[in-house]
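sry for the spam today, last one i promise. struct tokens for design, 468 residues
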């Protein structure tokens, strides 16, 4: 018997297809994977123009259907354990590891709920004073520079913020004692291993050899797990660990209180690896993209400074942006959202249909892989008025264009990004301090790394003008 779930019709095996059914347009091409990896945004725009917001491809093998309409995105996000399953490439799943949130769907909800305690709400608010302090210290170095390599400078500060926030340690290359007992001896070495790991995520050849990105990525993953295990063992030597101090402390205390619970040793090590990796790349790319976008719009920068002054006062010197300040910064939040809309960092997690479904008269066949793609949804004029214009006010009343299943920078459903609140909080604080201390000018147009995560390339520089 057919099942109806809101606007979605789920077809059981052997059921006759509804009349006047349509299939997603376009036939998969052998070169789709290469074109998508080379430039996902261009791939999406070209096919949107030719076929509309739903189309079939051969990306990553088989049939991969890209969707950009709200109803189809809702179908993709909400089908877990009902009519969809995770469908990331095998190489990617191995990089995530067997204790990631993408494995064991039967344990996903319990694991995610347990992990969220250390990345949201009161725990996240408790991290804010340290986030302020570390960002301000990093920006002191910017004060001595006239032209700045944007991404690498942002990434350096984000790394210094995230390692104590997530792991409870401050990695300082000038203090060799910090690295005592750890299998990696400098921040630079750790970052290099992470980059090798990241490069292996979408290795096209599943060949465990140092000659392939996949093989090198697996070797880097093994090094990172050993590093995280050493950090965890070091942290366990501490007396009276405070579970509110950082993400790892929360996991260690939870494990002590419930040894048979969610937090096994393997899960803790794997989550430390993944959370630092995902947070560092995503937050660094987002902060750099916001600074770049604001560099194009002096009037928006001035409006943001006025918002700061109204909330904090003119002569506060902005040493601390507190939770109550951040909650009132509606224009800043809208500006970050508009950056995520116009420069979405990646697609959402792939799902495979375990049953055929029908949405708006379109049949999505069982076995198809689905990608809910922000690069389609975010440029649809049905959802965003004049989508080609950078306009933060679209996310403020009365427009309120950040509707569910239309604005999807952090995915959605049970696999929505675990670190979304943390990413927004760190970005708000970072941009607030930059606005209060500097003005800046763009030097030409940047090039972007396009895949697997969109970010400004390391060689792009901006010119700083110090605020009086």
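last one done:
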């Amino acid at each position: 018997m057919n099942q109806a779930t809101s606007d979605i019709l789920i077809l059981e095996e052997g059921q006759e297809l509804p009349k006047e059914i349509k299939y997603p347009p376009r036939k998969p091409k052998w070169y789709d994977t290469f074109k998508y990896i080379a430039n996902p945004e261009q791939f999406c725009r070209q096919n949107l123009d030719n076929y509309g917001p739903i189309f079939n491809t051969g990306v990553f093998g088989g049939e991969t259907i890209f969707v950009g309409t709200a109803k189809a995105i809702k179908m993709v996000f909400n089908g877990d354990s009902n009519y969809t399953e995770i469908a990331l490439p095998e190489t990617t799943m191995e990089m995530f590891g067997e204790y990631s949130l993408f494995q064991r769907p039967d344990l996903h909800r319990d694991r995610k709920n347990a992990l969220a305690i250390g990345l949201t709400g009161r725990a996240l608010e408790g991290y804010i004073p340290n986030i302020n302090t570390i960002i301000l210290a990093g920006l002191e170095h910017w004060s001595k520079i006239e032209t700045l390599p944007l991404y690498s400078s942002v990434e350096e500060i984000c790394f210094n913020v995230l390692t104590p926030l997530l792991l409870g340690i401050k990695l300082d290359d000038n203090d060799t004692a910090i690295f005592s007992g750890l299998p990696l001896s400098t921040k630079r070495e750790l970052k290099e291993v992470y980059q090798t790991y990241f490069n292996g995520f979408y290795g096209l050849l599943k060949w465990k050899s140092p000659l392939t990105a996949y093989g090198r990525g697996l070797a880097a993953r093994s090094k990172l797990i050993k590093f995280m295990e050493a950090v965890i063992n070091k942290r366990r030597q501490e007396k009276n660990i405070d579970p509110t101090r950082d993400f790892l402390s929360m996991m260690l205390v939870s494990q002590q209180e419930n040894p048979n619970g969610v937090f096994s040793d393997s899960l803790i090590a794997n989550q430390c690896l993944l959370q630092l990796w995902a947070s560092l790349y995503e937050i660094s790319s987002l902060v750099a993209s916001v600074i770049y976008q604001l560099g194009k719009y002096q009037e928006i920068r001035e409006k943001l400074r006025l918002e700061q002054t109204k909330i904090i006062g003119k002569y506060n010197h902005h040493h601390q942006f507190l939770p109550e300040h951040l909650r009132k910064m509606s224009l800043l939040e809208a500006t970050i959202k508009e950056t995520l809309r116009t420069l979405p960092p990646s697609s959402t997690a792939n799902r495979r249909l375990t049953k055929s479904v029908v949405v708006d008269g379109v049949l999505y066949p069982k076995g198809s892989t689905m990608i809910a793609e922000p690069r389609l949804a975010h440029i649809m004029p049905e959802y965003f008025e004049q989508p080609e214009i950078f306009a933060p006010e679209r996310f403020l009343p009365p427009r309120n264009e950040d509707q569910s299943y239309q604005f999807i920078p952090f995915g959605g459903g049970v696999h929505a990004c675990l670190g979304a609140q943390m990413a927004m909080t760190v970005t708000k604080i970072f941009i607030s301090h930059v606005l209060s201390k500097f003005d800046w000018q763009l030097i030409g147009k940047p090039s972007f790394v396009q895949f697997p995560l969109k970010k400004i390339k390391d060689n792009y520089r901006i010119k700083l003008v110090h605020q009086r």
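The two ends are 70 Å apart (CA to CA). ok im logging off now
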